Amino acid sequence: MKKINIGILGCGTVGTGVAKMLTEKKDLITSRVGAYLHLKQIADIDLALERDLKLDPGILIDDAGKIINDPEIDIIIETIGGEDIAKELILKAIDNGKHVVTANKALLANHGNAIFKAASVKGIDIAFEASVGGSIPIIKSLRESLAGNQIYSMAGILNGTCNYILSKISSDGIEFKDALGQAQAKGFAEADPTLDINGFDTAHKLAILTALAYGIEINLNDIYVEGISKITPLDIEFAREFGYSIKLLAISKNNGDSIEARIHPTMILFDNILSSVNGSLNAVTISGDAAGDVLLYGHGAGMMPTASAIISDIIDIARNLMAGIQRRIPPLSYQTGNIKKIPVLPIDEINTHYYFRFSAADQPGVLSKISGILGSYGISIKSVHQKGRKSKGPVPIVMLTHNAKEANMKKALSEISSLDFISDMPVIIRIEEEDKNDE
Fold first, then answer.
1. Is 205 assigned a catalytic role?
2. Which domain CATH number covers 24?
3. Which of 27, 41, 252, 333 is deepest in the core (most CB within 10 A)?
């Protein structure tokens, strides 16, 4: 039986999961591939770390270069993380003619175009299913299952940490910092959660998905990013009263001559299926012209869900090797010569619905003054809610708008915030819904 040799770079949580699957499920994998996927070597800087792995002596080493330069190794699995060292090792592996599997979303979002170009020149495969959505087969769906579809839009909950925090604020009525502490205690959030809660982790994933969906180069820098740290129980309660939940959504839309790509807290109606995705789970909806709306749902992170996605990529490449073919599917789904440059719409140019919360003095004329300013910028009010005063001081006024332009919204709120009866900066949350009256 043919043997295909595997080398793993990095043996932390994910690398350990991949090694476990390769060793413990070798009979199942062999029966599906028709070849033995042999884990020949693993490189990690910490050989003394306790790992739940049964490995033969000599498999775990501390020299990544030995694996990169081993002529017998066919597929390299990168699970190191980070950018600089991972990029260097992947490019060396490609230059040595080795196929590469990675889960490194930050690396691909920042350097993917260069890496894919290098792989194209050498005629080798690079696979990255685990970089977005963990065990959810979102990349395979876009590259293969939906390859005949014109993709209109995507919306997704792509960060389990943020989804867990928002779910806890919603269910328990606790403040953001307390929900974050619970997420850290349960291992859903890192000690430094900045990448997650500020939306950057989600942006890396959306950059990859947008390129796959619309046939463009990966373009991280033009994605608008806003995190969840300002979301309060009060806003979640107001949203609930209006029939909405609040999620950190990655939103991408194909407008033909432009693309929307943005990440921010978003209010969605309770009947939107993403509204019911709670805890640390992820979900993505894709709208295609032939398939209609598709939902993919599952665990977006963790040792075994991520390892599962990596193993699927290894099996795909192994099957290609067995068939004597390479690069059957282009990394970004479209053939290299057909990758386009479509501009990403600046956030000020988008049109959507808005939730505003103002802290205002409880006095006559406040509502009419705010409404007048909004109207002067072409912003039409859909609903208004004002809480009665329970104690001395400002009271919250909440408004939902019809479709409005972001730039106009910012100008209106800047003017409103300067009024003497407004005590704090207004809270703004964008709303995603269809309003036939706005068409």
1. yes
2. 3.40.50.720
3. 252
Give the Cα separation of 245 and 239 in Å (integer). 6
**Six-digit token string for 412:** 């209106």
> What band does 18 get if pLDDT is binned at 50, 70 and 90?
very high
Whether residues 142 and 291 fall in one domain: yes
Give the tokens for residue 99: 């196929």
Element (H, E) at 185: helix 176-185
- Structural domains of the chain, count: 3
Residue 439 reports pLDDT greater than 50: no
Q: Which residues contact 86 (CB under 8 A, 6 or more apart)?
A: 9, 78, 80, 102, 104, 107
The pTM assigned to this predicted structure is 0.95
The rounded distance, in Å, linking the Cα atoms of 82 and 127 is 17
Q: Please tell me the predicted confidence (pLDDT) of residue 49.
A: 87
- On the 0-12 / 13-18 / 19+ scale of CB atoms within 10 A, 346 is middle
Terminal Cα distance for the chain, rounded: 62
What are the tens digits of pLDDT across the range 45-66?
Answer: 999 888 889 898 899 999 999 9
Q: How far is CA 294 from CA 33, 154, 207, 273, 276, in A?
A: 29, 9, 20, 11, 16
256 and 125 inside one domain = no
Distance from C-alpha of 352 to C-alpha of 273, rounded to nearest angstrom? 20
* 3-class secondary-structure state, position 174: coil
**Pairing between β-strand 259-269 and β-strand 244-254 as defined by DSSP bridges:** antiparallel
Say how far apart CA 35 and CA 315 lie, in whole Å. 10
Selection from 384, 355, 389, 386 nearest residue 371 by Cα: 384
Domain identity same for 374 and 430: yes
Does one domain contain both 193 and 310? no
In what helix (H) or strand (E) does residue 304 lie, and over which residues does it extend?
helix 303-323
In the structure encoding, which two tokens stand for residue 283, read together? 């979900």
Domain with 84 in it? 3-137+303-338
Residue 264 and residue 386 share a domain: no
Q: Quick check: 389 pLDDT over 60? A: no
Domain CATH for 431 = 3.30.70.260
The one catalytic residue among 87, 105, 140, 205: 205
CA-CA distance, 155 to 340, in Å (whole number)?
A: 22
Q: Which two tokens stand for residue 392?
A: 């001395």
